[in-house]
Amino acid sequence: MNLSAAKDTFIIESRELLDEMEHSLLELEKDPSSQDAINAVFRAVHTIKGSSGMFGFNGIVDFTHVAENFLEKVRKGTIKISDDLTAVLLECRDHIAELVDIYAEGDASVPAQLVAKGNEILKRLESFLNEGQTISSKHNEAKEAKEAEEKKDTASVTKTSRDRVENDCWHISLRFGKDVLRNGLDPMAFIGYLKNLGKIINLVTVTDAMPKIKDMNPEECYLGFEIDLETDKTKEDIEQVFEFVENDAQIIIIPPNSSVDEYKMLIENMPETPMRLGEILQSIGSLTEHELEKAMMKQIEKGGLEHEKPLGEILAEEKMVPEAVIDAALEKQKKTAVEVKKSIRIEADKLDNLINQVGELVITVSNVNQLADKNGDKELLEASSIMSRLVEEIRDSAMNVRMVQIGETFKKFERVVRDLSKNLGKKIDLEVSGGDTELDKTVVEKISDPLMHIVRNAVDHGIGMPETRKKAGKPEYGTLSLNAFHDMGMIIIEISDDGEGINKERVLKKAIERGLIAQGQELTDKEIYNLIFEPGFSTAEAVTNVSGRGVGMDVVKKNIEALRGTVDIDSKEGEGTSIRIQLPLTLAIIDGFRVGVGETSYIIPLDMVLECIEITEKDILTKRGGNFVNLRGEVLPFLRLREFFDEEGAKSAHENVIVVRYGQMKAGLVADRLLGEFQTVIKPLGKLFENVHGISGATILGSGEVALILDVPRLVKAAQRIEEESKKLHTAGVA
Amino acid sequence: MSIEIKQAETEDYGLLQIKGDMSIYNVLLIKEQFNDAINSHDNLVFDLSGVNEIDTAGFQMLVLAKQEAARQNKALKIINHSGPVLKIFDLFGAVGFFGDKIKLPKNERDNYSFSYGIKKQKVPI
Q1: What are phi and psi of A24, to 5 degrees?
Q2: Is 0.85 exceeded by the ipTM?
Q3: What residues does each domain of chain A span?
Q4: Catalytic entry in A68, A226, A647, A723
Q5: Is A46 a catalytic residue?
Q6: Given an 8 Å threshold on Cβ–Cβ distance, is A213 in contact with B63?
Q7: CB contact under 8 A, A284 and B116
C-alpha cells in the first residue's frame, strides 16, 4: 500500500466529509428535526475518526472521539438540537478542518494552542448534556458506548439463545481470496495493523486450502487466519482495517462474549470441516471444549434437518451478522462509499494536457480536411470527413470530462451567508437552484471569488436589518437566491435579493463626487447601476468589515470579463437587486461559425448564431455604418464588420447578415462571405491585445492562418448603442 | 528484488540456501526450485539466513514446501532463520507449524512476541 497516496485520499475525503457536515449542520439549523442531517453529521465525524485512527493522526482521533460520542446522543434524541448547539457543532467542524489541515501539511503534532481550543469547544459541547452525563471522562464513556454496542451486537443475533462464550476477546476469521496478493494487498500488512488496535492474543494460520504443489499457483493466496484480538475498539474499527480487502476476502468478526450461535455460524460458513475448525477454535481459546460441543451439536442438529442448504441462504445468513449490527446510518455510509467508487480522481494537469492535445488534433484535422478538399480525391474526402466527426466526438467527450457542477461552489455560500448574517444581526434565507448546472472546471474555479464578493455584498448592503424590513412591510427574513442555468451555450448565474435595492440618487451623487461622470450627464437606469462596477466606487455609508472598501465590484467585473463573460445589474429601489453573470461554458474549444470579411476570417461562437440572411442595398434603410434592417417586421440593429474592423479588400456584391443573440438582445453582423462551421480552438490573445474591442481571442485555421474570434456580447452592445445614438440624433433632428 | 537459490547436496540431505527476497515477484522461481528439491531429496534443509525480505506470498511458499514434503513423507527443516523470516513467523503464529528450532541472540529476543503458535503441531495434508 502506498501510504502517502492513501494519506492524500484521506485528506481529500475528510475535506469532502467536512463540507457535507457543514451543509447538514446548516440544514439542521433550518430543520432541527431532520434525522438525515443528524446522521450525515454523525457519519462524517465517525468516518474521519476511523480513518485518522488508521493513519495514527491522534490529534484528530482524540477530538472526534468525544464529538462522536456526543453526536451519538444527539442521534438518539437524548440531546435536543438547538441553534446554539448547531453553532457549537459548526465550530467543531471548523476545528476538525483545522486539524486535518495540520496533518495535510505533514505536521505530526498539534500545537498546544489548538489542543486547548479543541478542549474549550468540547467543554462547551459538554454544557449541552443533561445533568449527570459527562463526556469529559472520555474513557468511561467510550467503554459505556462500547458495551452498549456489544450488547446491541449480540442482542441482535441471540434471539434464540442466551449462551455466551467465556472468551472475552474479539474473534476474527479471515479467508483471503485468491487475488489479494496479485492485487498488491498483503495479508501480513492487515494483520500487522491489528496490533495497533490491541493485542493479538492468539492466531492460527489456516493452511488447509493449500493444494498439492503441482496444482498450486504461487501468485494466489491460499491462507486463512483465525485470530483472537484483545481490544477496546468497536466492531467498525476492526472492520475498517479490512476495508480494502472487504470484497476480496471472507471476513467474520465476532465480538467478545458472543453467543455460541455466532461461532456455530462461523463453523458453518468457513470452508474447513466443522471438526477441523472446531479444533482450531478450541486450540486458540476462542471456545472451550464445552462451548465447542454445544456449537457442534447445533451444527449436527441443523445439518440433519436441512441437509442441503441453498447457497443463497448460507450467504444471507453470513451477511446477516454484520448487517444486524450496523445501524441505518452506517449502512447508508457503505452505500455512498460504493457510489463514490464509481468515479476516479484525476490530476487536473493531466486533464489540461488532454485538452491541449485534443486542441492540436482539431487544428490538424482541419488542415487535413482542407488538403483533402484541394486534392479532390473522393475516398480521401470521405475518410477525412469521418475522421472529423470522430475528432469532434472526442473533443466533446474530453470537454465533458472537465465539466463540473456549480452546486459545490454554491454550497460554500451557505456557510458564508449564515455566518455573515449572524454577524450583522440580519435574518437571511439562501435559496439555491440549478446547482446541477455544469460548466468547465477552470471557469468554476475562477468564478468562485467574484461570486463570493457579490454574495457578501448582497448580505451586507442589499438586505436590511429585520426591523427595517418589517417597517418596509417585508418579511423579517430576507431572501438571497442563487440560480444557475444554461442558455445559448452560455451559463447564466443570477444572484438576487429582495433587499433595499440600489439608491440611484446616491449612486449618481457618488459618481459625480468621484468624477466618474459629469454633473448633468443623463444616464439610463442601467447605466447608473453599472456605475457600481467602476473602479473606486462604494456607496456604503459605513465601511464594515464585510465589504465597502471600494475594492470589489470593479475587480469582480474584471475577473468575469477575463473569463469572456459579462455581468449586468438590475435593481428596483425598495424591492431588490439582481446581478446576472453570463459565462461561456468553456475556455478551450468551441463550435464556431466562420465568416470572411475582405481578406480576413472571423469566428462567431456558433451557439450565438440565430440565422443568416442575405441583404441587398435596398434593405438597408440608411447608408450609415451601423444601423438597422427590417427582419420580418422586427427592428434589427446591425454592425458592419468591414467598417468596425477597418477591413480593406474587394467588397462582394452580396452582403450577409448573421443574426446573433446575446441575452435578450439581437443584432446583425454584416460580413462578405459565409464560410461555414469551424471547430475553434481558442488561443488567448497576448497582453498587448487585451483591450482590443470586439475580439475575444484567436484561433488557428487548417491552413495555418489566424482567425479572430468575435466578442459577440460587446459587438451586440456596440450595435445597440450605435442604433440608440442614431435614434437620438434622429429625434433631435426632428425637434 | 532478486533471489538466489543454491542447491547443494550432502550425503544425508539436500540443502537449499536462499538469498534475497522471498516476495511475490519471485514466487514462480521459488516454486520451481522447491519442487525440484522436494522431488530429488528425502531430507531437505532450507537455510534462510540470507532472506532479507519475505511477504505473505513468500511465506506461503514455505508452507507449501512443508506440506508437500509431509505429503510425500519427506522431512523438511528450516535453519538459520533471518530476522524478516522470524518476524512473519511470529506474526502468523507459524513457529509451531514448521516445528524447527530457532536460534536467537538474547538481545534480539524483545523484537518478537512469540506469544502464540509456538506449540508443535501436526502439519495438515
Answers
A1: -65, -35
A2: yes
A3: 3-136, 160-340, 348-402, 404-584, 589-734
A4: A68
A5: yes
A6: no
A7: yes
